[in-house]
Amino acid sequence: MTPAEILTQLGPRFEQAKEAEGGLLFFTSTIVKHRDESGIEYEITLCPALQNKPHLPTPHFAQENKPLKFDPFLPPYDPNLHVGPLELRLDGSEEDYVVLLNKYSVVPQHFLLVTKEFRSQASPLLPPDLVQTYLLLAAARKARRNLFAFYNCGDNSGASQAHKHIQFIPLEDEDGPPIEYLARSVKLETADTPFALNLSYANHVYRFPDRFYSYSPEALEPVLAQAFLSLLDLVISTIRHDPEYPAGKPSYNVVITLEHMHLVPRRQETHVLAETGDQLSVNALAFAGMLLVKSERELEAVKTEGVGKILRAVGLESVHELQVQGTAAEARDVET
Ligand code: AMP
């Protein structure tokens, strides 16, 4: 199927899956807007019904280069959730994918792009993953729909499935998730150079060229691959500045929109809320500006503690200034 065909199928498949016995569980929720000192208007989704969702323990990805005993992202697919296959053939790389609806949905039509073969969720996004993801975003734009993508990579990123899956959330707002307001407001002196948003936690952002959505898959590939690699380098460099970073493979979150790619290094999966002692699990969605809480009590605790403080606790300290100075020094070395 093409990305456009997948998108056409999403609505009807979602409605069928919701009705089917043993199909998709849709949890109703309310959205509360909350602006914090960073100026971002966070969308906090209050979803009490999630308290009934089965708790999935975090797999230890680093030890898993093969599927677990039960891998819901391998065939036979649940027919209620299966939307269709996607194949990507590029010069020198190819990968087959399957699109599945999220079985536990808070946002209607939340879907997953999973690799057909098992690949580890602790592995980085490869060029075909990036191109396939962006082609879905571009196809949505063409169909006058709004989507953004996210990827939770590694043990401490908030992921709960070990099989590589990139997630997509439909949005009402054509401007993208809340973080995009801040990303878009940054005036860049040099194109093609990663930058950082002035936030409480380390983050690395890359702005795509103008009208990137009109690029062919072959033209998307080098830009996306270069963007991801340069941001991943910065993530590793940020982690190296933290002497207490947990051992093992790095964890980070990725958010991809039509205009930007964001990478956020992670040091821990959950934050214990000071006011209630509840554990709040944090994944890429929170760094896109969309948090999920399961009770009014949690909602109040998040507002009191402050989103910035919570995200800083599960992320890392920004060393952006040091990194910029380092790059400038390297450039001087090359010139002399
Ligand atoms: P993460 O927790 O980031 O690893 O994302 C895993 C996603 O897969 C979540 O959105 C889950 O709700 C979803 N999920 C879990 N089990 C299934 C399943 N059997 N079929 C489809 N989606 C699932």
Automatic annotation (TrEMBL):
Matches recorded under Gene3D superfamilies: 3.30.428.70
Indicate the segments annotated as coiled coil, or none if absent.
Answer: none
Query: According to the lineage, what is the superkingdom?
Result: Eukaryota
Alphabetized InterPro entries for the sequence:
Ap4A_phos1/2, Ap4A_phos1/2-like, Ap4A_phos1/2_N, ATP_adenylylTrfase_C, HIT-like_sf
Pfam families in the cross-refs:
Ap4A_phos_N (PF19327), ATP_transf (PF09830)
Q: Which UniProt keywords apply?
A: Nucleotidyltransferase, Transferase
Q: Ap4A phosphorylase 1/2 N-terminal domain: from which residue to which, for each copy?
A: 21-179
ATP adenylyltransferase C-terminal domain location is 198-316
Q: What is this protein called?
A: ATP adenylyltransferase
